[in-house]
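Model it.
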Amino acid sequence: MTRWPAYCRCWMRCAERLTNGQKDRHARDSRAEPREELRDIAEMDRTELLTRFLLQRPAPAHRLTVAGLKPAAVLLPLVERADGLQLLLTRRSPHLRHHAGQISFPGGRQDPDDRDLIHTALRETQEELGIAPAQIEIIGTLSPLNTVSQYEVLPVLGLVAADYQLTLSQDEVAQAFEVPLNHLLDPHHHIALTIPRADHRHTIYWIPWQDHFIWGATASMIRQLSRQISI
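Modeled.
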């Protein structure tokens, strides 16, 4: 049986407290017309995304004072569709030893043979999802994120060809799905949970989408992206 850390168990108890009415409200929000302040994001295309991203300094990332962190990288895979930009997410296999069943981006720790951390993100994406590097246009990177699992993770933003084909790694990935970017960037969908940890209070964010709960480092990177491209 998986033994979750205390803060994970706390989060899951809070998630379970969502009433059916609250879940229905979030589902209605995801189908509703975007709010006025997010309408421009909902209509943002590849060109505007590049402009917004390159005009801003990297948004600050959550950092812990932990020495000896291991380097890692993830890909934030954006897909341009007729109804707007989508973010491709994965649900990790329930059989994994760490972070089983959680929503995440494709990625992992840096291998000795990786040229750099962008190569790490591309290699892991191909291993987990079967998407070749040739189908991904790298836009840039966000500030590294330090995690409680002793990694310094570089978020790499990339545009994935709309005609990509998935070949999921059965050992690592249970599901892959797209979520509208404007839903993820809407702060009204970011639910905060503050917990005590190491004599400090730490805020964890989670974002409901249909039957999924996006939280932890994945939600932190989404919030970082939101700050990066908001003008």
